[in-house]
Amino acid sequence: MGIIVGGLVTIGFTFIVYMERAWPHVAAVGVLSALIGLLLFMAALLSRPFHGPLAIDPAPFEQVLAVFDQVDKGQ
């Protein structure tokens, strides 16, 4: 929730900046909004690495954990 509020505040602050022409301002706000939207999407997509279209298999992590346990036990 804090990420979304931060994005909205950032977009809101862009309206404080004064530009003589409207088009550069609209372009800057549009690019910034698209970037924040893309970052929010990626954060949501990558927040659950074992689910969804970019899912990874937990087997290698489990294997490494077993190796670490063996090393800790001195085997």
What does this entry look like structurally?
This protein has 75 residues and is mainly α. The protein has one domain. It is 71% helix and 0% strand. The chain has three helices and no strands. The longest helix has 25 residues.
Short description:
With 75 residues, the chain is mainly α. The protein has 3 helices and no strands. Helix 1 (2-14) runs antiparallel to helix 2 (22-46).
User: Which class do the helix and strand fractions yield?
Assistant: mainly alpha
- The Cα radius of gyration reads 22 Å
Number of domains: 1
| Uncertain runs | none
Tell me the fraction of residues in β-strands, as a range.
Answer: under 5%
| Principal-axis shape | rod-shaped
Largest sheet at a glance?
A: none
Mean pLDDT: 85
Task: List the SSEs and their pairings.
Blueprint (H helix, E strand, L loop, with lengths): L1 H13 L7 H25 L12 H15 L2
Helix pairs in contact: 1-2
Feature tags:
75 residues; mainly alpha; 71% helix
